[in-house]
Specification:
By secondary structure, this protein is an alpha+beta fold. Helices cover 19% and strands 26% of the residues. The chain is elongated and about 100 Å long.
Length: 242
């Protein structure tokens, strides 16, 4: 039989770099190299220098995995095999839209959070960059396709104060429409404008006016009951002064 260092075991890796916004997929067939992941749990950090010279000095975090039968790993299940658990809507293996009623739970098969030889795909995220760049991953960068839309996120991105005009800092891009180049940008959400403040003030003024009208009508009704010598219903007019 082949030695453990030369036996074949294909494991696929999807490694993602948060700084560049890119991901790269690769396969490793030597079991001696992938053995460094055996026994590790989800959310653990590991040095992957043993995978090759280009990964020397890189530290990654295990963020997910799939076994050979397509069952996803679930964090918190401290086993290295497959188990059946009661799932709530929205959990791994039980989509929220499949729930037929409130409070429904369903039993689904999931993989434990410990990596073993049955795992076929591992998802990794770079925590610390190594000595050299990885081709197609850390040597290039990709701009964000979708800029932030919410006003608070735009302020956080450009370090703005609440007195700055967020509309001037919205990220736009050039788009060709009907043969003409135009600047297209997102519709800013939760934007507080003078028009919105005026409408809010008008709405609050109407609420106050209706409240005063109800009190005046109630005060007039209580005076009418008192003039006719009738009893005031219990709990009516406790907060109204005649």
């Amino acid at each position: 039989p082949p030695s453990p260092s030369t036996s074949t075991h294909i494991m696929r890796f999807v490694i993602q770099d948060p700084l560049s916004g890119l991901s790269k997929k690769f396969e490793i067939e030597e079991e001696g190299k992938v053995r460094i992941f055996f026994g590790k749990k989800l959310r653990e950090e590991i040095d992957i220098s043993a995978l090759g010279d280009e990964y020397k000095g890189y530290i990654v975090k295990i963020t997910g995995g799939i076994d050979r039968d397509g069952f996803s790993m679930r964090n918190g299940v401290l086993v290295n095999n497959r188990v059946r658990l009661l799932m709530n809507p929205g959990d791994v293996g039980f989509q929220a839209w499949r729930a037929r009623g409130k409070g429904e739970r369903i039993r689904r098969s999931v993989r434990g959070c410990i990596v073993d030889i049955d795992i076929s795909v591992l998802y990794l995220t770079i925590v610390q960059k190594g000595d050299s760049d990885i081709e197609g991953l850390t040597d290039v960068s990709k701009d964000r396709q979708l800029p932030p839309k919410r006003a608070s996120k735009i302020r956080r991105l450009f370090n703005l104060t609440k007195y700055d005009d967020v509309r001037k800092y919205a990220v736009t891009h050039t788009k060709t429409l009907a043969g003409t180049e135009v600047q297209v940008g997102p519709k800013i959400q939760r934007l507080v404008t003078p028009q919105r403040l005026r409408r809010k003030s008008e709405k609050y003024g109407l609420m106050q006016e209706r409240r005063r009208k109800r009190k005046n009508e109630l005060r007039h009704y209580l005076k009418l009951l008192k003039s006719e010598g009738k009893d005031v219903p219990r709990g009516l007019g406790l907060h109204v002064q005649l």
